[in-house]
Amino acid sequence: MSDRLFVLAQNLLPKRALTQLAGAFAGARAGAVTTATIRRFVRRYGVDMAEAAEPDPAAYESFNAFFTRALRPGARPLADADWLSPVDGAISQFGPIDGDRIFQAKGHHYTAEALLGGDAALAAAFRGGHFATLYLSPRDYHRIHMPAEGRLRLMRHVPGALYSVNPATARGVPGLFARNERVVCLFDGAHGPFAMVLVGATIVGSMATVWHGVVNPPRPGQVREWRYGEGAAPAVTLRRGEEMGRFLLGSTVVLLWPPGPLRFDPSWAPGAPIRMGQAMAQRG
């Protein structure tokens, strides 16, 4: 199917209803039906269950429990690098931010301000900085980890569309990652601020963080924001490589860095596979 036809189908599908239905099914505890579904999924996508802390598909009470499965200890060693890959998946794009513009695919850009929920002041911190966009397919491990140690300052849930985020949609839908529902997480690190943006997609039933739990649903249709280390919300500091969140079904993570010297790992290229804990970038 061509990219144009795929995007047309995306526009015609009832994406929100499909997402709600998929979320309900994935959370159901249906015994033998759940186990059979998981086994079919493992075969269809070639999931390596030997890496899982619990390798037996029958041990998972729901599809969500399987999909957000933990890995066995030592499955993802941490590289000696300033910045680590936070996920298993594939590199979509990476590089410098051109003023406020972030490259999505040939012929398509979007702005940091739009990605961050229309926050011009926050976007200014990343103007002329760097970005990385990482795609998680259905077969991938779906927990998200810290690329470096960080102290959480802000979390923002931005409502939006629920387009698929696979490469065909990235090529065909302008401003895709700034249009889809997303959760913006802003951290202070040893080298300054950095942002991790969890982007939702069709049939991604919800996104969750370790400090908040499930962020969506609910989907109230307006931006929601939480600040940390101020007032009633306690400070949250997460270590390098520590889990920070998870997707229920596949999606995308966008990382933003402020201006300054940043060298991506020489092995990086668009489309290349990555694993959590591998070297992503060095400062200087």
UniProtKB/TrEMBL annotation:
Active site: D88, H145, S251
Any Gene Ontology biological process: phosphatidylethanolamine biosynthetic process
Annotated Pfam families: PS_Dcarbxylase
Role played: Catalyzes the formation of phosphatidylethanolamine (PtdEtn) from phosphatidylserine (PtdSer).
Sorted UniProt keywords: Cell membrane, Decarboxylase, Lipid biosynthesis, Lipid metabolism, Lyase, Membrane, Phospholipid biosynthesis, Phospholipid metabolism, Pyruvate, Zymogen
Membrane topology according to the record: Peripheral membrane protein
GO molecular function, one term: phosphatidylserine decarboxylase activity
Cleavage (non-hydrolytic), annotated site positions: G250, S251
Entry comment on modification after translation: Is synthesized initially as an inactive proenzyme. Formation of the active enzyme involves a self-maturation process in which the active site pyruvoyl group is generated from an internal serine residue via an autocatalytic post-translational modification. Two non-identical subunits are generated from the proenzyme in this reaction, and the pyruvate is formed at the N-terminus of the alpha chain, which is derived from the carboxyl end of the proenzyme.
EC nos: 4.1.1.65
Hydrolase is among the record's keywords: no
Subunit structure, interactors included: Heterodimer of a large membrane-associated beta subunit and a small pyruvoyl-containing alpha subunit.
PTM annotation (Pyruvic acid (Ser)): residues: S251
Name of this protein: Phosphatidylserine decarboxylase proenzyme
Location(s) in or outside the cell: Cell membrane
Superkingdom to which the source organism belongs: Bacteria
Entry similarity comment: Belongs to the phosphatidylserine decarboxylase family. PSD-B subfamily. Prokaryotic type I sub-subfamily.
Cofactor note: Binds 1 pyruvoyl group covalently per subunit.
GO annotation, cellular component aspect: plasma membrane
Catalyzed reactions: a 1,2-diacyl-sn-glycero-3-phospho-L-serine + H(+) = a 1,2-diacyl-sn-glycero-3-phosphoethanolamine + CO2
Cofactor(s) needed for function: pyruvate
The encoding gene: psd
Pathway as given in its UniProt record: Lipid metabolism; Phospholipid metabolism; phosphatidylethanolamine biosynthesis; phosphatidylethanolamine from CDP-diacylglycerol: step 2/2
Organism: Piscinibacter sakaiensis
